[in-house]
Q: What sequence folds into this?
């Protein structure tokens, strides 16, 4: 069965973005994201796509990029000449039921806030990857769960001593912790 994964980076206040983009640069976190998603499928909301495409950050190579938007037909028209649909495609369906998915792919739901909210409500997730940044970045967009409800709704996949903390030299040694969770009802010990 296709594994469904939510992946997000969250600052100290639960912020995930500002002015349509992520107001930080953590190369170690980016590397984790790139390694985890490589060869798989990433699904994102249209606003995240617009913000990253405008900065030449998307589509990400080596991954099937799927954008959820009510304007899927218009976006398809606009991008069909430039990218094969196996690389970049658009859908109106969060479940991507009208998209031919790459074989043996994992689906990574990777933002933004609007998409995360629906994914948490509607998708049977297998795993949740959260990079918890210790700094605060004055965000205007927030993960739809705050710190307390993350602990209530999700179960740490690994005992705390196995969590990996990073202190990124290139990000000025600002620390973050990479945490793996499962939705609570799925935990099997
Ligand atoms: N820190 C992180 O890990 C992270 C990751 C990703 C994004 N972000 C940040 O999150 C912010 C963007 O988040 P956002 O909440 O404003 O927007 P978003 O979730 O990226 O996109 C929302 C849009 O997605 C489309 N959409 C969502 N669900 C849909 C559905 N069921 N059917 C059809 N279309 C659907 C709609 O597009 P239409 O209006 O076109 O219909 C909607 O306006 C940015 O600041 C970005 O940098 C942070």
A:
């Amino acid at each position: 069965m296709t594994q469904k994964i939510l992946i997000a980076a969250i600052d100290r206040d639960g912020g995930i973005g500002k002015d349509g983009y992520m107001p930080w640069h953590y190369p170690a976190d980016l590397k984790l994201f790139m390694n985890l998603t490589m060869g798989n499928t990433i699904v994102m909301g249209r606003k995240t796509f617009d913000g990253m495409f405008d900065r030449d950050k998307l589509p990400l190579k080596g991954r099937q990029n799927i954008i959820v938007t009510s304007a899927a037909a218009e976006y398809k028209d606009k991008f069909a000449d430039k990218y094969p649909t196996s690389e970049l495609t658009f859908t109106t369906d969060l479940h991507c039921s009208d998209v031919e998915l790459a074989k043996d792919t994992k689906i990574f739901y990777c933002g933004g806030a609007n998409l995360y909210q629906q994914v948490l409500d509607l998708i049977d997730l297998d795993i949740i990857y959260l990079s918890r940044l210790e700094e605060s970045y004055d965000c205007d967009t927030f993960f739809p769960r705050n710190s307390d409800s993350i602990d209530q709704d999700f179960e740490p996949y690994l005992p705390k001593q196995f969590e990996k903390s990073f202190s990124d030299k290139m990000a000025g040694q600002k620390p973050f912790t990479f945490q793996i969770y499962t939705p609570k009802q799925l935990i099997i010990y």
Q: What stands out?
A: The chain has one domain: 4-186.
